[in-house]
């Protein structure tokens, strides 16, 4: 069998196993006879989804969470790449800052999320900051690793051609470290979903985390499932965007 | 050659800082190079050959002594490294255009120039190939084209064929010889191969072990264009023997 056909086949198998989960789930609900507020059947979740979709509330709350994630990613990635670049270039700076960076990683974001909500309020800002914080570290580390791995002889080449500081950044350091940078973004994108939800669970009037909690309070378990699935789709979507970026910019590596 | 020298080096020394008084890589090197001359520095590993090229390329500042160029103070250099040192994310064409791009030239004139260079090094049809798809010899041809495209005052070669197999290496000597005659560049090359230096250079200088000093300066009076057969003549043998005896 040709590798290409094998590839499509494995893709179909993946889809098939996912579809298989639905009858299996229905079966479990029927056999166990659990009430709807403990384990809703796929049909209930689907009906709840349609209802929330039609009244527009689902789209709104998903939009809010997506906005928090995208802004958080943007802020976190921007700060992390700039800081990572500075740290990669200066050992002194690294010695000064690394104790703080390591210590900051010892604190789970879940623990400081309430603090951030107290300081920044229950609106979008606190979630964006939580997202940014959770994304910061992996992107920072990957930036440092990526920039440090740029080969010395490539620097020699650029210097022998009298390249400017900016030319070295744009034409050498960025493309050379892009594989590692995008690897960091891949981790960051998935983490940012967690960040937004953690923030929303602490205190929020909107977003999927709010919907999740609302469903929980009202014994609307189907709603909880809908929110969880939306989160999964958001995470998959972000992951897909990073994969597209890799396909577009790392053609030379495949 | 009775032209004025293009490059003159006076008492050039390079010392790398270390824990016991510094590592002397080069000590009081003095010599002159004339326009369009092909000069080869021959020396064992650890004779500071690469350090020397880095100084000429302006990547490394000398500890003492002076390097002066006649046409202008900061010469344009083209450098070929031990490994082809291509950027793996750029195609052959884009790699070759890099020096022009850094000068802000990205127009169709630059494209034509790159095409011309690709033709010169015999890589027609490989414009859009990526470095990973090239053999060692082809990659090094790209590196040579890249080093020449911006019409440098000085071409610096740092053991450019050291990583190639013997047959490819010898083919590249002929190629380089041809390109040099077509382009009329001043070339400074470092190598540890006696054959390579005699086949290519007008003048060979032998460097000593660290700290590198010039031990011998030999005119290579073999006629050009040089052929493979020339390497088996008695005169070539005599020169090779002379150089061999100078290398520790």
Task: Describe what this molecule looks like in 3D.
The complex is a heterodimer of chains A (254) and B (248). With 254 residues, chain A is mainly alpha-helical. Chain A is built from 10 helices and no strands. In chain A, helix 3 (57-89) packs antiparallel against helix 4 (91-106). Chain A is globular and about 75 Å long. Chain B is of the alpha/beta class. Chain B has a domain at 1-75 and 154-164 and 184-248: Rossmann fold (3-Layer(aba) Sandwich), CATH 3.40.50.300. Chain B has helices at residues 49-56, 92-102, 108-120, 136-148, 166-183, 194-200, 234-246, and strands spanning 7-16, 23-33, 38-42, 64-69, 77-80, 154-158, 186-191, 203-207, 214-219. Chain A binds chain B through residues 151, 153-154, 156-163, 167, 171-172, 175-176, 178, 250, 252-253, and chain B through 54, 57-59, 74, 77-79, 81, 83, 85, 87-90, 98-99, 101-102, 130, 132, 150, 156.
């Amino acid at each position: 069998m040709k590798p290409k056909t094998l590839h499509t086949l494995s893709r179909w198998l993946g889809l098939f196993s996912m579809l298989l989960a639905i009858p299996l789930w229905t079966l479990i609900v029927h056999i166990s006879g659990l009430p709807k507020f403990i384990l809703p059947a796929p049909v209930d979740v689907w009906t709840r989804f349609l209802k929330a979709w039609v009244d527009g509330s689902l789209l709104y709350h998903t939009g809010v969470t997506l906005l928090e994630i995208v802004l958080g990613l943007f802020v976190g990635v921007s700060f992390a790449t700039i800081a990572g670049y500075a740290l990669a270039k200066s050992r002194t700076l690294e010695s000064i800052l690394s104790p703080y960076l390591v210590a900051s990683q010892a604190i789970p974001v879940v623990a400081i999320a309430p603090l951030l909500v107290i300081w920044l309020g229950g609106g979008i800002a606190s979630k964006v900051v939580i997202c940014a914080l959770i994304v910061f570290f992996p992107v920072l580390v990957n930036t440092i690793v990526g920039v440090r791995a740029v080969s010395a002889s490539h620097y020699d080449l650029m210097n022998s051609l009298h390249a400017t500081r900016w030319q070295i950044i744009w034409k050498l350091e960025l493309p050379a470290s892009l594989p590692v940078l995008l690897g960091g973004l891949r981790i960051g994108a998935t983490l940012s979903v967690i960040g937004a939800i953690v923030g929303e669970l602490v205190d929020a009037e909107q977003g999927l985390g709010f919907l999740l909690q609302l469903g929980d309070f009202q014994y609307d378990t189907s709603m909880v499932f809908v929110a969880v699935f939306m989160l999964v789709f958001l995470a998959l979507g972000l992951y897909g965007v990073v994969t597209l970026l890799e396909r577009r910019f790392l053609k030379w590596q495949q | 050659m009775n032209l004025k020298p293009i490059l003159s080096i006076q008492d050039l020394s390079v010392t790398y800082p270390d824990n016991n008084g510094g590592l002397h890589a080069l000590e009081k090197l003095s010599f002159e190079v004339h326009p369009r001359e092909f000069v080869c520095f021959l020396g064992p590993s650890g004779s500071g050959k690469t350090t020397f090229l880095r100084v000429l390329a302006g990547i490394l500042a000398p500890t003492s002594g002076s390097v002066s160029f006649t046409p202008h103070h900061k010469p344009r250099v083209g450098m070929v490294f031990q490994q082809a040192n291509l950027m793996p994310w750029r195609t052959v064409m884009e790699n070759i255009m890099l020096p022009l791009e850094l000068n802000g030239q990205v127009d169709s004139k630059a494209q034509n120039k790159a095409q011309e260079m690709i033709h010169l090094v015999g890589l027609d049809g490989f414009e859009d190939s990526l470095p990973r798809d090239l053999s060692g010899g082809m990659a090094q041809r790209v590196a040579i084209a890249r080093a020449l495209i911006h019409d440098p005052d000085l071409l610096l070669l740092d053991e450019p064929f050291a990583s190639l197999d013997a047959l490819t290496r010898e083919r590249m000597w002929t190629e380089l010889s041809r390109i040099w005659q077509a382009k009329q560049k001043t070339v400074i090359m470092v190598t540890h191969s006696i054959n390579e230096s005699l086949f290519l250079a007008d003048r060979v200088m032998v460097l000593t072990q660290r700290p590198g000093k010039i031990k011998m300066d030999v005119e290579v009076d073999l006629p050009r264009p040089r052929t493979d057969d020339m390497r088996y003549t008695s005169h070539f043998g005599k020169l090779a023997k002379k150089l061999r005896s100078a290398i520790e």
